[in-house]
Write a structure and sequence with these properties.
Mean pLDDT: 90
Number of domains: 2
Order of helices and strands: HEEHEEHEHHHHHH
Largest sheet: 5 strands, mixed
CATH architecture of the largest domain: Up-down Bundle
Radius of gyration: 19 Å
CATH topology of the largest domain: de novo design (two linked rop proteins)
Structural class: alpha+beta
Helix content: 40-55%
CATH superfamily of the largest domain: NADH-ubiquinone oxidoreductase 51kDa subunit, iron-sulphur binding domain
Distance between the termini: 50 Å
Strand order of the largest sheet: 2-1-5-3-4
Length: 217
């Protein structure tokens, strides 16, 4: 036990079993010493993204953890360091997304998963996960404006801390982080999608009243 406690950091001692999946060349389960740079896990152990690609973002502790970007790869992989970076080590399930994937695709996959998993008992979770999916789909279809991003941020804020279990928070946290860290990309996606629809595309329907009626505001 004494030898084991010499590993890791002062506040995160020992080792941790982590899984690395997503866009890496050697996905798998690895035992790492807590506190080593995340880059050593993602690039050193898991081989990094496929040739010619780069890390776009990564979930440090499963799909419910707020995402980090490539610039965060040198963070120590331990509980305290990730908490200070406003995310979490969580389950130790590292998911890597490379720069070939639009962030909207990542957000939609996360939101749809948690919408499916919601038991429907809590209004903020039941309605909030559903509205988040719908708002993301509007972005992809060319119906959205930047105001939809503000509405989505409000939905996530109203989910957080207002459910009987943490499933709603588990969707709100990563989606909120993508809205902050990839705002420019999402706005560009909105503009490109609206351009594809053409100048005669109808303006987006008002979501404000529907959200209020759904009880998520």
């Amino acid at each position: 036990m004494e030898q084991y406690s010499k590993l890791g950091t002062e506040t995160s001692k020992g080792t941790k079993l982590v899984s690395v999946s997503g866009h890496v060349q050697r996905p798998g389960n690895y035992e790492i010493e807590l506190g080593i740079p995340a880059r050593e896990i993602i690039y050193g152990l898991a081989g990094g993204p496929p040739e010619g690609r780069a890390v776009k973002c990564w979930f440090p502790g499963g799909s419910s953890s707020p995402v980090l970007k490539a610039e965060d790869l040198d963070l120590p992989y331990d509980f305290d360091s990730l908490a200070k970076a406003k995310t979490m080590l969580g389950s130790g399930a590292i998911i890597v997304i490379d720069n070939s994937t639009p962030i909207l695709d990542v957000a939609l996959k996360v939101a749809k998963f948690y919408r499916h998993e919601s038991c429907g008992k809590c209004t903020p979770c039941r309605e909030g996960t559903n509205w988040t999916v719908k708002l993301l789909e509007r972005i992809d279809s060319g119906e959205a404006t930047p105001m939809d991003l503000e509405i989505m941020a409000s939905v996530c804020e109203n989910i957080s801390g207002n459910c009987l279990c943490v499933l709603g928070d588990a969707m709100a946290m990563p989606i909120s982080s993508m809205l902050v860290k990839f705002r420019d990309e999402l706005e560009a996606h909105i503009e490109a999608a609206r351009a594809r629809r053409g100048p005669g595309a109808p303006l987006p329907a008002a979501f404000e009243g529907a959200l209020t009626a759904g009880g998520v505001r």
